[in-house]
């Protein structure tokens, strides 16, 4: 049986992504990108505009089946997760995420986090972002804190509502050292509200 060194995997992921974030953040600052200018619905006729907004909003807000894969206590688990975020660009956003893990005990995970979005590219239809953040974790039995990194495609639906297609990785350190830490990867759609 192959033993997975979770800390080594997390360190490698952090090094790879940090090598991408630094140059990306510098180029984003130089090109003066503005997420508020990404409004794909302006070029559509009014009739098509309303349909596109409804489709994207409904998909992002109601799509509950985002997969999450985690390693805890040297065991692999899968589940579903959903995240809602609110923020103001470029100051960052606060997120709440609930996960249902497919196992017999401690099936509920709840996370609260702050994320700083770094735009890599913004166009007429979408913006590509890297987000770095951290937050608080609980499964109602144990608690901890985590750093996280994500790569996403932000699709604005209205002036304030956006949908993010994302790939996220994080490592949760437990307060109680007798409890095992958690490494997880998730992907899917999240709802983002920018004001």
State mean pLDDT (0 to 100 scale).
Answer: 79
Straight-line N-to-C gap: 50 Å
Q: What class, by secondary structure content?
A: alpha+beta
The backbone outline, from C-alpha atoms, is globular
The proportion of strand residues reads over 45%
What share of the residues lie within helices?
Answer: 10-25%
CATH topology annotation: Porin
Unreliable residue stretches: 20-46
Radius of gyration: 18 Å
- The helix/strand order is HHEEEEEEEE
Helix count from the secondary structure assignment: 2
CATH architecture: Beta Barrel
- Largest sheet features: 8 strands, mixed
Count of distinct strands:
8
CATH class: Mainly Beta
Estimate nothing, just give the exact number of structural domains: 1
Please explain how this structure is put together.
With about 200 residues, the protein is of the alpha+beta class. About 20% of the residues lie in helices and about 50% in strands. It has a single domain (about 5-195), classed as Porin (Beta Barrel). Strands 1, 2, 3, 4, 5, 6, 7 and 8 form an eight-stranded mixed beta sheet that branches. The longest helix is centred in the N-terminal third of the chain and has 26 residues, at about 5-30.
């Amino acid at each position: 049986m192959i033993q997975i060194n979770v800390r080594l995997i997390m360190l490698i992921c952090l090094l790879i992504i940090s090598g991408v974030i630094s140059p990306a953040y510098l180029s984003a600052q130089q090109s003066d990108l503005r997420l508020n200018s990404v409004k794909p619905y302006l070029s559509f006729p009014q009739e098509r505009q309303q349909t596109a907004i409804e489709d994207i909003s409904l998909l992002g807000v109601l799509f509950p089946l985002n997969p999450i894969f985690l390693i805890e206590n040297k065991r692999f688990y899968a589940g579903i997760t959903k995240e809602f975020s609110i923020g103001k660009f470029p100051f960052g956003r606060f997120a709440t995420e609930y996960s249902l893990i497919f196992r017999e005990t401690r099936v509920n995970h709840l996370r609260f986090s702050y994320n700083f979005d770094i735009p890599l590219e913004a166009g007429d239809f979408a913006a590509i972002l890297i987000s770095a953040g951290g937050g608080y974790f609980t499964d109602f039995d144990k608690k901890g804190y985590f750093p996280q990194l994500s790569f996403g495609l932000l699709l604005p639906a209205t002036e304030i509502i956006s949908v993010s297609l994302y790939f996220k990785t994080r490592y949760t350190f437990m307060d109680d050292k007798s409890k095992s830490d958690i490494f997880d990867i998730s992907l899917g759609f999240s709802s983002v509200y920018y004001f």
